[in-house]
Design brief:
The protein is an all-alpha fold and 86 residues long. The protein is built from four helices and no strands. Helix content is 72%, strand content 0%. The termini are far apart.
């Protein structure tokens, strides 16, 4: 795959908005849609999708780690209703 493909900010935003609309379903229709939206070829779109998915998994793993640490430390709750009841 073409890892040297440069994506402009505009192409990246189009790609992310298209993913938000069509979801992360890896079907032929999704690839065609992403190609049409971004102006990139299918190979570039698939490679970029893979990179995005790696980043999403890293973010999710970090969030899970943060949530577990918050549970251990007792968490932090900014809910006014809880404060008023005390």
């Amino acid at each position: 795959m073409n890892s040297k493909s440069v994506w402009t900010w505009e192409e990246q935003m189009k790609f992310l908005k298209a993913l938000a609309i069509c979801g992360f379903d890896e079907t032929l229709d999704v690839w065609c849609y992403l190609v049409n939206v971004t102006g990139k070829n299918e190979e570039e779109v698939k490679f970029h999708f893979e990179k995005i998915m790696v980043e999403i998994k890293k973010i999710e793993a970090s969030l899970i780690h943060l949530l577990k640490n918050e549970e251990v430390s007792g968490g932090h709750n900014n809910n006014r209703d809880d404060d008023e009841q005390r």
